[in-house]
Amino acid sequence: MNTRVLDGLLLENKLLQDQLNQLRYFLAGSYGLKLQVPDVQSGQSIYCAKEDLHHIAAGLLAPSVTCADIGAGLRPQRLMDCPVHVLVEPWRPYADRLVQSFPAKLVVNAFATPYLADLQDKSLDTIFLLDVIEHIEKEEGRALLQEALRVARVQVVLFTPIGFMPHEVHDTSADWGDVEHGITQQHLSGWTPQEMPHGVHVICEDYHTSEYGKFGAFYSILTPAKSKQAPRLVLVSDALPEHFALDANDVLVSDVRFIELSHLLNRIPKRNMLVVPLELMAEQSIVPLEILRRTIINLPILQHYVQHFEQVLAFGNAAQAVLQRLQQRYETT
Q1: Does a structural domain hold residue 296?
Q2: 3-state class of 310 per DSSP?
Q3: Is pLDDT above 50 for 308?
Q4: What is the spatial distance between Cα 178 and Cα 175, in angstroms, rounded to a whole number?
Q5: Across residues 22-37, what is the average pLDDT?
Q6: Pick from 188, 222, 256: which residue ends a domain?
Q7: Which residues of 296-314 are buried (b: 16+ CB within 10 A; e: fewer)?
Q8: Average of pLDDT values for 62-67?
């Protein structure tokens, strides 16, 4: 297929989807609605209020079975449930308290980078670095990110202040109880979203208030690099199979009704999304395609994709019917 034509179509579609996602967020925010944003494109930054920050970040996460919660402190992450949840904590008094407080979880007393260095590539689904990277020097922080992206299969989730926010051991909140605090509580570096690898960033510019002033904070949800494969065209009118994984190069053609329900079904991130009324096309099987082209805006693009993609998959009765009809059209022309 003509790679230049495909790249142009994908870029145009991505730009339109980026604009739609931002518009949906700001319109919903103006009405005070609680948000789930499973379809924000990689590379976007979303700015939000403090009370929405954690909720929006949680809505962006892909489901995971295994996770490593690096620098768990006394409070393991609560953004999502993982059946296998490993707590990694370098400060021994914190690790001992975690063992007492969370007997159902595996607790490892270790520093972040050496712990990850001993793990195999793509051996954990998700790695959490929540309030961690600011506690180490810049050079070590970059090495930690590199190791996390090597080990993670699905995502690396980072949370940190915007810029350098001073914090000493004695600044630790009394809410942490009577456990002994150590030097690991000191802040040694500051970070910004622009320094992070390509991903999705959720930013609050007024999050922390301390004796040192006011500071923002941000989440970065980073996707590990995947092996490159030929792009696939995936038509969906119902739901994707539970274990089917979309690659970053895939183009997802979704029914109009399915895109609105996707966060309830499989939380599918819309990579290169194209919205087409597949159910309607399946119902109008006797209407000539030439007539449907005049009323269905994205149909010409879908026809072009079906004609040029080497691998095309369809999930759902309507998606399969539409694909069969389009393929028969080109076999007879």
Answers
A1: yes
A2: coil
A3: yes
A4: 9
A5: 45
A6: 222
A7: beebebbbebbeebeebbb
A8: 89
Report residue 32: phi and psi, to 5°: 70, 25
List residues bridging with 201 in a β-sheet. Answer: 45, 220
**Terminal Cα-to-Cα distance of the chain (whole angstroms):** 18
Q: Rounded to whole angstroms, how far apart are CA atoms 115 and 164?
A: 25
Sign of CA dihedral 187, 192, 195, 196: positive
Instruction: Assess whether 268 and 196 both reside in one domain.
Output: no
> Do 170 and 271 fall into the same domain?
no
Q: What is the pLDDT of residues 241-290, one digit of tens each?
A: 777 777 767 788 888 666 544 443 444 445 567 788 888 888 887 778 77
Contacts of residue 303, defined as CB under 8 A and 6 or more positions apart, other chains included, come to: 289, 293, 326, 329
Residue 270 Cα distances to 21, 246, 263, angstroms: 10, 9, 11
DSSP-assigned letters across all residues of 118-141: TSPTT-EEEEEEET-GGGS-HHHH
Q: Which two tokens stand for residue 220?
A: 């970065």
Same domain as 206, residue 69: yes
Q: Is residue 10 one of the residues assigned to a domain?
A: no
Number of independent structural domains in the chain: 2
Tokens of 31: 């009405």
Regarding whether 106 and 195 lie in a shared domain, the answer is yes
Find tokens 């022309």 and name the residue.
333
What sign does the dihedral 155-156-157-162 (CA atoms) show? Answer: negative
DSSP state of 285: T
Secondary structure string (H, E, C) spanning 54-67: HHHHHHHCCCCCEE
Q: Find the mean pLDDT for residues 13-29.
A: 52
Task: Determine contact, residues 64/80, Cβ cutoff 8 Å.
Answer: yes
Instruction: Report the CATH number at residue 165.
Output: 3.40.50.150
Q: Which domain holds residue 199?
A: 43-222
Q: Which of 5-19, 120-134, 225-239, 305-319 has the highest average model confidence (pLDDT)?
A: 120-134
